[in-house]
UniProtKB/TrEMBL annotation:
GO BP of this protein: positive regulation of protein ubiquitination
Provenance organism: Sinocyclocheilus grahami (Dianchi golden-line fish)
Domain of life: Eukaryota
InterPro entries, A to Z: LRR_dom_sf
Name of the protein in its database record: F-box protein 33
Length: 288
């Protein structure tokens, strides 16, 4: 279990207590940040840290990269687009900061959850040197573009294992419009460690879903796509006999090497994304 602290409780801890602390969660939606860089200096054996992305400053990153500290193994970052007006991205980690941190913490893996963040801000956040293992893009109105998915599949093809793309809106945008290759298929092809793929609120063409299952096979441990997100190409249905849904289930099951069905309800939609972040963060940190 991660240690959850407030500024008062952390300040009251003795130096021996803080120096032995290995897991720390600082998600509290407070302004200003829950912890100062000076206070973080005492946590010399910190191995797992969770906080809001806007609180992960250049100064904090450089401190964590110092050679007199234990290497950081897990970093969970929550980015809330609704809070960017009061907690902007200015002053957050740069590409050089990430490079320095990764040089010191060679086993570092990062989990990012972004809620209602526009693609322009996501492109600012997703630096090439981030050792991104898990990313969850969740929104009510903001649209994640194909360019963001393309960037993720290109930059993090060696580290990404979990990709969750959610949108709780009536429309189901198609990321493959005006593209020769579907970005989700490219993600499955490029990301050699991809084990979890969850999609709701974006159009997933049936033939692309089959392609994803064949590319990842049994290595894709979780494939959750809501039934209402799946669409069928009318041109292809001419050449396929029988019920298209039945054929899709059969082909995807064959590709994965196990029985598969689309999600039949909205259970994949998260009513409390922040609580989901806390659960995922604890699971992520426990896997060190």
């Amino acid at each position: 279990m991660l240690g959850v602290v407030t500024p008062c409780s952390l300040a009251s801890l003795s130096n021996p207590s803080t120096s032995s602390l290995e897991h720390l969660s600082l998600i509290d939606n407070q302004l200003p940040s829950l912890i100062s860089t000076i206070e973080l200096e005492r946590l010399i054996h910190l191995r797992s840290l969770s906080l809001e992305f806007c609180d992960f400053t250049s100064d904090m990153c450089r401190l964590l990269a110092c050679g007199d500290r234990a290497p950081l193994h897990r970093l969970s970052l929550l980015l809330n687009g609704a809070a960017l007006d009061v907690k902007p991205l200015d002053g957050t980690t740069t590409e050089d900061d990430w490079k320095a941190l990764v040089r010191r913490s060679t086993n570092l893996r990062v989990y990012i959850m972004a809620m209602d963040v526009c693609s322009q801000d996501l492109l600012r956040v997703l630096k090439p040197s981030v050792p991104l293992e898990r990313i969850h893009l969740d929104s009510y109105s903001m649209l994640v573009t194909d360019g963001v998915v393309e960037l993720i599949s290109q930059q993090y093809h060696k580290t990404l294992s979990h990709f969750i793309l959610m949108r709780d809106d009536a429309g189901f945008p198609d990321l493959s419009v005006n593209r020769n290759e579907d970005p989700l298929v490219l993600l499955a092809w490029r990301c050699v460690h991809l084990a979890v793929l969850i999609i709701h609120g974006y159009t997933v063409w049936s033939h692309n879903l089959v392609a994803i299952s064949r590319l990842r096979g049994s290595n894709l441990k979780v494939l959750e796509v809501s039934e209402e997100s799946i669409d069928f190409d009318p041109d292809q249905s001419v050449y396929i006999e029988g019920d298209p849904v039945h054929n899709l289930v059969k082909e995807v099951s064959l590709g994965l090497g196990r029985v598969w069905h689309p999600s039949m309800d909205n259970s994949v939609v998260l009513n409390e994304p922040t609580q989901h972040f806390h659960r995922e963060m604890q699971s992520f940190s426990a896997g060190m």
